[in-house]
Amino acid sequence: MPYLGSEDTVRELRRHLSNPNVQSDPLRYRSSILKVIRAMSQGVDVAGLFSEMVKACATVDIVQKKLVYVFLCSYATLNPELSLLVINTLRKDCQDPNPMVRSLALRNMVNLRLPSLAEYVEQPLSAGLRDRAACVRRVAVLGWAKLHNLQPASEIDAAVVNELYGLLRDPDPVVMVNCLRALEEILKEEGGMAINKPITHHLLNRLGQLDVWGQCEVLRVLQRYRPQSESELFDILSLLDASLVSPHPPVMAATLSLFLVLCPDLPAVSFAALERVRGPLLAACGSASRETRFTALCHIQLLLRSLPGLMGAHYKRFFCGYAEPAYIKQRKMQVLVELVNDDNVAMLLDELRGYCTDVNADTAQAAISAIGRIGRSYSDQCLQILTGLLGLQQEHITSAVVQTMRDLVWVCPQCSDTVCSALEGCEETLQDSQGRQALLWLLAVHGERVRSAPYTLEGFIDGVRGEASPGVKMELLTTTMRLFVCRPAETQDMLGRLLHHCIEEETDMCVRDQALLYYRLLRCGMEETRRVLGGRRSEPSLGVLIGRPAEPISQWASSFNTLEPLKQGAGETETTGRASPQHVTFDLDSDLSDTLNSGAGGFSFSPAGVQAPPLTLSLSPALSPEEFERLWTQRRAPPAEEGAEELDYVCLEERIRCPAVPHCSPQSLQAAMQLVNIQTLAFTAAHASPWRVYLYTHAQQAARSALILGQLLYAGEDEDEDEAGLSEGPSPRGREEEVKVTLKQRPRDEKALQGFLSILTAVLHTLPFNTH
Amino acid sequence: MTKHFASTIAAMISQVFILSSQGDHLIYKDFRGEAGSDVVGVFYEKVTALTGDQPPVVMNHGDLHFVHVRQGGLYWVATTTADSSPFTLIEFLNRLAALVKDYCGSLCEKSVQMNFALIYELLDEVVDYGYIQTTSSDVLKNFIQTEAVCSKPFSLFDLSNVGLFGAETQQSKVAPSSAATRPVQSSREQGGKSEIFVDVIERMSVVIGSNGVVMKADVEGEIRVKCFMPSCSEMRIGLNEEFSIGKSQIRGYGAAVRVDECSFHQAVRLDEFSSSRILRLCPSPGEQTVMQYQLSDELPSAPPFRLYPTIERDSGGRLLMYLKLRCDLLPRSAAINVCVTIPVPRGSVSVSQELSSPDQSAELKLQSRAIEWRIPRFPGGTQLSALFKLEAPALGPAPLMEVGPVVLAFELPHLTVTGLQIRFLRLSPVQPGPSQRWIRYVTHSDSYVIRV
């Protein structure tokens, strides 16, 4: 077939359509119309054939009718006058004995979207509502909604609205659901249709007759209902319980949405509902459709925000399949990071390490940064993997590893030794600017401990002329400055060269200005430079380390089962803004740091309570559990009776109000304690009663060192009765949330002990509230 | 009290369109007149400009959201202005694709192009004003008038297609593979030639550690019924009598078949399920998933494949990979279309191989940096070996770390890993005229990873 331009096509088609021979042969006529529709869906403008197509509309052939209607509905708005010719055919069809013809005519009458036709349409639509055939009523009901939206200014016909309310009792389920939809559209201005008790109960009773789509619609509309009593609420919830575990993800999601809306004040019910949907959601995660898998994953991420332990036992379900697309793999890794715990960390890291060498660079980088995130709680294992990956000497892997190490060191300063020794030599593999910036940042902050740092910098400075990225240049300036402060002899010469280049030859204004700034700073003298540049080396708040506290469900309930969770980028859970370190250079003594500390919402243990000389905690020499037990029981006796030893050691009991402690997971408690160098030795299981933790540390203050042993005891509500008489301070209500702290110190040092107690209190208060 | 009124915007579909992978407009239907047809082009630009890590499923253009799925190499797109339920939209698009497949026989660019009139008709009945009306083929069959156009004349007696999924087999009753890819409605004209297919399809995903320990083993299974019967009032599917659901069941008997979770199609009646494991349903024309089940963290039998690799560098800087692959299926069954993918280090240039039989092949795919070793048929209880010599002049310092994990793709015809079997398939009333009932089993590898 020769190629025809769009005008030729239209002319050719018109010739066919107006040929009387074609018109008399139904098959040829139909195939000509088919050609028109084909051209139309390929994007050819066939509007010029409107009058020919109007003629073709008057036929008994239903297939041809349907085809013509497809055409007419697309082009009617361009030809309002000619469309008037169709309306007669359509109105005649509305009287046809065949219900299929009637519904077809009625549907397309409104689909022409011509406000001028409204007066002709109303009568057939009214008749349609009372038609014998359900398929006509379905069309008529929605027809009213279409008509209303065509003339938004017109008044709402109360009679029609009443009739629609009445049709909620229609025996056909689709008619009923369409009534809901139509009423919602027509009454949009008034906030949608009335959802009162009789309507709600009627809809709930008919839920079983509806198909998946109808059920979703009803469940969605019911979100506006507020049950009048608690017993009614629970009746509704138990009725919906089966839908909650529906094998159809749309129904399951709509039901959970409704649950969350109905009981915002009953967290226990909401949490139970989340537990119920775990099965169906996991099944959706394994669905054959990738898009369904992705949707389920995104929604699981939402659930995990409130119930971090929800999927813990099912972590293997989130292992990536080999053939899965990168975007699903990345989501799965984000979920895996949330699920890590003491039992599965080895398996999980092993799995993640496998992804690091993935052919897809995005997947590999995501896997590496996932390992880095886990490294915040399990630094040793993760650093071992990360340093191993550097051995591959592959550009994208090394870059991702160095960036990950930077982020890790920023929150876990105890990793810096390993990282510093791993950095040697990796500048040769790094090509991209992101990776090199990360390397420079690490050299700036921990440069005094990297033997080859000046040589690495020299390499960078020698190549600065060919450097394209201004980001790298600025980072290079800062790094050289900071290294100059701690290793002046080795860096003085290259700093001079770098400043000279950046001030004299650099074209990027930002880089030039920064170089000038540093130059002027140097002229103020070394002391001033050191003071300005000496920023902190790690994130002072524990928030990043112990993870987000579990959020209340209301934080995300409104975005559940919407497109929102699917749109959020991969970085959503990463909170990069806080996790990635920048050069924060300010004076710790100034007010600024206090403001920042409080603003960050985290916990800072360096300032305030502990005054100079500073109290430092240390884990060495390590104490074995046996040793601990011996020391602890040895000093079990009340201190009052052992007057002789009073100077030697001290025992202190204190109550700390801290609701989260008995509910928090052992690993987050341990991680939090380890950060401030408190070693936890033994735990009872979470939720066990009484709940105990044993811990120890060495407190060093002004060259004196003392061993502190401690026990945290949470007795639960039972023990309150016995002890109520002993201490009159807090009310019984408050007592439930208190943890009894027993500390033993040797040798005695009251000040250090008080300092330790304040640190401990602060740490306990940062713990996330976790229901598992 | 915190009141969060959920958005009461309904799940309205503004437009639906189908694009070929090259961006050709195949089908375009506007339901609400909220956006112009120019957004089709916008969508294609957006979807092709995505980088690997950007999730493609939902995209935005102003107030318009695009939600799409990919099926049969085509983009199935729904647009919406409301913040609708993604589960609903995606399920709808998948269902639409399934309907088109049922009605047109197969799902590809060509069949959609040839049957566009049928698809418009279908869309007209399925969605009205952006609201999903029905997707049940039972209801739709009364409304759809257009005949499907098949790309090639269909013949049931096309015996060149012996065997399902390409397997040669001794079984006398083998369904022709083309049978399942014919339009549902042609059954009217086939002179009472009525057939029903019951497929038990399982997908397994397995991770085997480098020490040979099975680290993860999940099976997702489903029973699919594909019905080409003009009239079928009830069908009874009998499963293994020892079929049990859930972890708590007492096990230890060899014949027991266990799954963790199991869900059924809405239309399935389960009154005989608990007593005698019988599913009762009235199949609608076309394909439907009757039952879905999962088994996680354990397989009733040994994993089908084990790999014993030996990898070393020789003096010439080459990488020698000696792989022994053992198939642990029962001797009478076999895996087919086995493809072993072995990721190789960066800088590999070419490979020379020694394979144990001429029907196998292997080649180095530089694009994906992997060797693909293809084995057309791999009988149970046998072992194959291959030696790959990898020429890589610029090997990194740790090339062995870059090898693996090895991935296997395969099909296990006539086999379910869970052991689920269909005892019987009864139709009532007894069908007049010739009717055929086919039961087919197949297990696919979803992801079968062996670490080295």
TrEMBL record, chain A:
Keywords: Membrane, Protein transport, Transport. Residues 719-743 are annotated as: Disordered. GO terms for cellular component: clathrin adaptor complex; endomembrane system. It is found in: Endomembrane system. Residues 615-765 form the Beta-adaptin appendage C-terminal subdomain domain. InterPro entries: AP_beta (IPR026739), ARM-like (IPR011989), ARM-type_fold (IPR016024), B-adaptin_app_sub_C (IPR015151), Clathrin/coatomer_adapt-like_N (IPR002553), TBP_dom_sf (IPR012295). One of its GO terms (biological process) is vesicle-mediated transport. The keyword Membrane applies. Gene3D superfamilies: Leucine-rich Repeat Variant, TATA-Binding Protein. It holds the Pfam family Adaptin_N. It is a peripheral membrane protein. Belongs to the adaptor complexes large subunit family. PANTHER family: ADAPTOR COMPLEX SUBUNIT BETA FAMILY MEMBER (PTHR11134). This is Beta-adaptin appendage C-terminal subdomain domain-containing protein. The lineage of its organism: Eukaryota, Metazoa, Chordata, Craniata, Vertebrata.
TrEMBL record, chain B:
GO terms for cellular component: clathrin adaptor complex; clathrin-coated pit; early endosome; Golgi apparatus. The keyword Endoplasmic reticulum does not apply. The keyword Transport applies. Pfam families: Adap_comp_sub (PF00928), Clat_adaptor_s (PF01217). Transmembrane segments: none annotated. It is a peripheral membrane protein. Keywords: Coated pit, Endosome, Golgi apparatus, Membrane, Protein transport, Transport. InterPro entries: Adaptor_comp_med_subunit, AP2_Mu_C_sf, AP_mu_sigma_su, Clathrin_mu, Longin-like_dom_sf, MHD. Residues 193-451 form the MHD domain. It is found in: Early endosome; Golgi apparatus, trans-Golgi network membrane; Membrane, Coated pit. Its main location: other. GO terms for biological process: intracellular protein transport; vesicle-mediated transport. Belongs to the adaptor complexes medium subunit family. Component of the adaptor protein complex 4 (AP-4). Adaptor protein complexes are vesicle coat components involved both in vesicle formation and cargo selection. They control the vesicular transport of proteins in different trafficking pathways. AP-4 forms a non clathrin-associated coat on vesicles departing the trans-Golgi network (TGN) and may be involved in the targeting of proteins from the trans-Golgi network (TGN) to the endosomal-lysosomal system. This is AP-4 complex subunit mu-1. It comes from Gasterosteus aculeatus aculeatus.
